[in-house]
Amino acid sequence: MSMRPKGLPEVPEQTVLVARAAFPRGSLAMRVRDRLAEVFADEPFASAFGVRGAPGLSPGVLCLVTVLQFAEDLTDRQAAAMVVRAIDWKYALGAELTDTGFDASVLSRFRSRLVGNGMERVIFDRLLEYCQEEGLVAAGGKQRTDSTHVISAVRDLNRLELAGESVRAALEALAVAAPSWLAGQVDVAEFAHRYGPRVDGWRMPASQTKRDRLAQVFGQDALALCRAAWSPGTPPWIREIESVQILRQILVQTYCLSTDTRGREVIKKRAADDEGVPPGHRRLASPYDANARWAAKGEDLFWMGYKVHLTETCDTPTEAEAEAEAEAEAEAGVRAAPNLITDVCTTDATVPDVKATAAVQQRLAEHGIRPAEHYLDSGYPSADLIAAALEQGTRMVTPVLLDHSAQAKAATGFDKSAFTINWKARQVRCPAGQSSAHWNPVKQHGTDAIVITFGVRTCHPCPFRDQCTSSAKGRRMLTLRPREPEEALAQARAEQKTETWKTKYALRAGVDGTINQALDITGIRQARYRGLPKVRLQHAFSATALNVIRLDAHWTGHDQHHTRSSRLERLAYRLTA
């Protein structure tokens, strides 16, 4: 398939007449076409297409269809139907009234092509560039970030179901790719009886003894299939099949091999307390999605899938400033810029928020929109990140973890803030006026740290020892970060106790409304596709659709979207956009 870059085609005259008559005030799709046509160009996708072969559909047109699809929360079939029957969509795409559109499978193949060429964020980034050119987004100012869970597009499986279903998935793949080879390795009739229907906990025996026996059968079948696939006479391409590779991983993480007293090989299901299981970030959760992971947040939220981080502008003025801006806008006829999503980041569910902070800020810097103030919750900061952001000109407005030492928790002893640090002399002075004996730079969990130790002879006779330490050795020890992170952390801890900071930090709460809007309009908490790359594409188009909706509200001067009917939903949208 080849591509001849040309962008969105001109809108036919008859389509213009009918669309304007049907929508005298316009529609979202029509306004997107009129104002954002240059965003949906073909040139950025040229490397994903060849130069020979039959010309394919315009990638710019397909991107516009996908954005409108997410803005309307449509399936592929519904979106393909809208291309045929919706007059405003025909206007947006520059199609004739008699155009019969394309098959719904085109959208799936187009997404696969984008993912295969690493182009998941192209349209999101191009729309962001347009917003920069229009002065709607710029460096400096305020931005806020938050994350939410995303449920994978595969069903939840317990460990026994996973063991059986992984065998079934491999057999299904081999039955298509290598039927002759498979027939020569296993008893097809027996395996078809056992693995024909999907492995479901509702169909499994209630007796624990029988379930243990079934788990052993699953393990034996998986082991036999893997040994056959990795035997010397087997064609190498068979073990390169994704389902076969996943079967091998699930076999290792679920079972262990041993030899009994008679020298016989025994396969046994792993017990977490005895043989151990892989950590959550490495443990596969489904044979159909190798990137989905189980994760927990607090005591109530437990899910399998991913996590998405959304960052948006939030230059919300005070009440007095808002009134002054409203008067100025009324005189100039210009509306204030809406809050727009500036970054979207998708990870697997086990990645903590703090691991996403630097990546988000780096992408904002690469786009030239690094904020002066970045509002985040307590899961995102660390001492190193706060200090590094300050060096780059970004102040992280975020609650940092407080001192969790026994003295700080008791609120009666001497916590870390009671000690005076002399960085040049490499010494620490305690509240009693005594100096530390040792200053030892070390590595803790891969990061630099400094362990401070006071001498036993200094601490033993001290009258404040009971308030300072409960150590069996009777001496106080402190752990510090390097100077810049430690001072940034101390300053942040002091600031977050003030009422001024608490009032300022209230601005961060608005990002929850954006997440709710993304959930209501695009269903962002439910993965549509399998695999992290395609889920990233889904979230990039979801964020693009939300920005398009907010831009449309900015252009038209109203914030009503056709999917909102209640006054409460309209208020929630107005507060976020």
Q: What would you say this structure looks like, in words?
A:
The protein has 577 residues and is an alpha+beta fold. The chain contains 24 helices and 13 strands. About 2% of the residues have low confidence.
Defining traits:
alpha+beta; 577 residues; 6-stranded mixed sheet; 3-stranded antiparallel sheet
Briefly say what this structure is.
The protein is of the alpha+beta class and 577 residues long. Helices cover 45% and strands 13% of the residues.
> In angstroms, what separates the terminal alpha carbons?
41 Å
Helix content: 40-55%
Radius of gyration: 30 Å
Number of helices: 24
The count of strands amounts to 13
Structural class: alpha+beta
Question: What is the element layout, followed by pairings?
Answer:
Layout: H1 13-22, H2 28-36, H3 59-72, H4 76-85, H5 87-93, H6 105-116, H7 122-133, E1 142-151, H8 159-177, H9 179-183, H10 188-195, H11 208-229, H12 236-239, H13 242-254, E2 255-259, E3 265-269, E4 293-297, E5 301-313, H14 319-332, E6 341-348, H15 354-366, E7 373-375, H16 383-391, E8 395-397, H17 406-410, E9 420-422, E10 427-429, E11 438-444, E12 447-453, H18 456-459, H19 465-468, E13 477-480, H20 483-495, H21 499-505, H22 511-522, H23 532-556, H24 567-576
Parallel strand pairs: 1-7, 7-8
Antiparallel strand pairs: 1-5, 2-3, 4-5, 5-6, 9-10, 11-12, 12-13
Helix pairs in contact: 1-5, 2-5, 3-4, 3-23, 4-5, 8-11, 8-13, 11-13, 16-20, 22-23, 22-24
